[in-house]
Amino acid sequence: MMAANQAPKSQARSASRLAAVQALYQQQMEKTALTRLLNEFHQHRLGQEIEDDQYAEAEVDFFDDIVSGVDARRDEIDELLQSKLAAGWKVDRLDKTMVQILRCGTYELLARADISKKIVISEYIDVAHAFFDEKEAKFVNGVLDSVGKTVRP
């Protein structure tokens, strides 16, 4: 949940992160082409009302950057994530939503030096809470913290 006092830009970025995870999940499940995926989210999801749920207004350029960036750098991101998982675990064994949360967070840590490591990790812990319990949110925290120490020492 967004805090009532959260700044509009911050709230828009939070909405963008959540939408990016959803878009990448959809892409993985349906093999949707990137251009079509982005267009569908621009037209029908970002800031829209779906089944009586009002989606927060998202920062479209930020959403596009995350989705396009994860799409373009998926192999690099997955290799980095794989190096942070416990022995015997593989990225493709993780829950599909969890993978997208970790990919998005890793992309931001790699490519968005304009956003502090602490904010990136905190935001994706919040995204994890939208789908999972505390245990999984702590997993996101641990993995992204480890990624952050590697890519932003």
Description:
With 153 residues, the protein is an all-alpha fold. It has one domain: NusB-like (N-utilizing Substance Protein B Homolog, Chain A, Orthogonal Bundle), CATH 1.10.940. The chain has helices at residues 8-30, 34-44, 60-72, 74-84, 96-111, 117-131, 134-151, and strands spanning 49-50, 53-54. The chain has a two-stranded antiparallel ribbon with strand order 1-2. β1 and β2 (53-54) form a beta hairpin. α1 (8-30) packs parallel to α3, α4 (74-84) packs across α5 (96-111) and α5 (96-111) runs parallel beside α7. It is globular, with a radius of gyration of 15 Å. It starts with 7 loop residues before the first helix and ends with a helix.
CATH homologous superfamily annotation: NusB-like
Specify the structural class. mainly alpha
Helix content: 55-70%
Named at the architecture level, the CATH assignment is Orthogonal Bundle
Low-confidence stretches: 1-6
What is the overall pLDDT average?
Answer: 89
Shape: globular
CATH class: Mainly Alpha
Q: What's the number of helices? A: 7
Count of folded domains: 1
Content of β-strand: under 5%
Task: Quote the CATH topology.
Answer: N-utilizing Substance Protein B Homolog, Chain A
How do the strands and helices of this protein lay out in sequence?
Layout: H1 8-30, H2 34-44, E1 49-50, E2 53-54, H3 60-72, H4 74-84, H5 96-111, H6 117-131, H7 134-151
